[in-house]
Specification:
Blueprint lengths: L1 E9 L16 H13 L5 E3 L8 E11 L5 H10 L5 E9 L11 E10 L12 E3 L5 H8 L4 E4 L14 E12 L2 E8 L6 H13 L7 H8 L14 E7 L24 H4 L7
Parallel strand pairs: 3-10, 5-6
Antiparallel strand pairs: 1-3, 1-4, 2-3, 5-9, 5-10, 7-8, 8-9
Length: 278
């Protein structure tokens, strides 16, 4: 028995999240079917983060065990040959049997993309979120800094979250504008269910001027989900990196803004150089 780690990318639009579920399409089931065909025996994978329905990944990390003796190239090219166009394997690494994609991870990195312009853009609506009101990215960034560090994030936690504790540690939270895009980078040791999308929803309240940046501190301390604003749509969210101890020697992730934006939508520099148009 050998253990391998895979770097997986996917467009989450047509999947009910990563985790296998009964009678619905999931990334996990799709990936396991392709791996099983290459291994010629059933394969089950464990992932670093169970993304929700409609959420994308440029670098999800999984591990699996196999008795089949295959060259590393087969685990990439062979598996990709059996995957649909919206799921792909980017790399494979042999790892020790005590490696666990979830429990060995030290941090997860997400990026949220908002196309901030008044006109609707028909191509790529499944890959980004759109906000037609002008967003003040600087105010959003200022407000977000109170979330850095370890806190009780109950105010940004889904009602059906199954985590035993609401405490998480955010190591980085940056908001910046790139032309018509507002990009939210967030990195934490782990995330609660819907935590990123709920934080983004609160930040949009600040960005459009409905709330002052200081408001977010009160939301955090109040621990009341009902006052934190609407949850942002899944279409703008990407899992783009997972950190592991250096001894595992796994490739680092790439954020969607470091790549060509997925699908048929143009890159940020091409779509429109103006930040907002009436």
């Amino acid at each position: 028995m050998a253990r391998f780690s895979l770097g997986v990318a996917y467009q989450g639009t047509h999947y009910h999240g990563f985790q296998r579920q009964y009678r619905v399409a999931t990334v996990q089931e799709t990936l396991e079917q392709a791996l099983s065909r290459v291994a010629n025996h059933p394969i089950r994978v464990a992932c670093a983060g169970r993304t929700d329905s409609g959420v994308h990944a440029t670098q999800q990390v999984v591990h699996f065990d196999a008795t089949a003796d295959r060259p590393l190239k087969a685990w990439v090219e062979g598996v990709n040959a059996h995957l649909p166009d919206d799921v792909s394997v980017n790399w494979v690494r042999p790892v020790p049997l005590d490696f666990d994609a979830r429990h060995s991870a030290t941090a997860r990195h997400y990026q949220y993309l908002i196309l901030n312009r008044s006109l609707r853009f028909a191509l790529g609506s499944e890959y980004v979120a759109r906000e037609h009101r002008s967003l003040d990215a600087d105010a959003m960034h200022v407000g977000a800094q109170c979330l850095l560090g370890e806190h009780d994030f109950s105010a940004f936690r889904a009602a059906h979250c199954q985590s035993r504790t609401p405490f998480r540690r955010i190591d980085r939270l940056e908001i910046r504008r790139q032309g018509p895009w507002v990009v939210i980078d967030i990195k934490a040791n782990a995330f609660l269910h819907h935590m990123v999308r709920n934080i983004v929803g609160a930040l949009v309240e600040i960005g459009v001027g409905r709330r002052r940046p200081q408001w977010l501190q009160g939301v955090l301390e109040g621990r009341d989900r009902s006052v934190a604003g609407k949850m942002a749509p899944a279409s703008g969210l990407y899992l783009c990196g997972v950190d592991y101890p250096i001894e595992f020697d796994l490739p680092i992730g790439r954020a969607p803004t470091d790549l060509w934006v997925p699908g048929s939508i143009e890159s940020p520099s091409v779509i429109d150089s103006r930040p907002f148009s009436e």
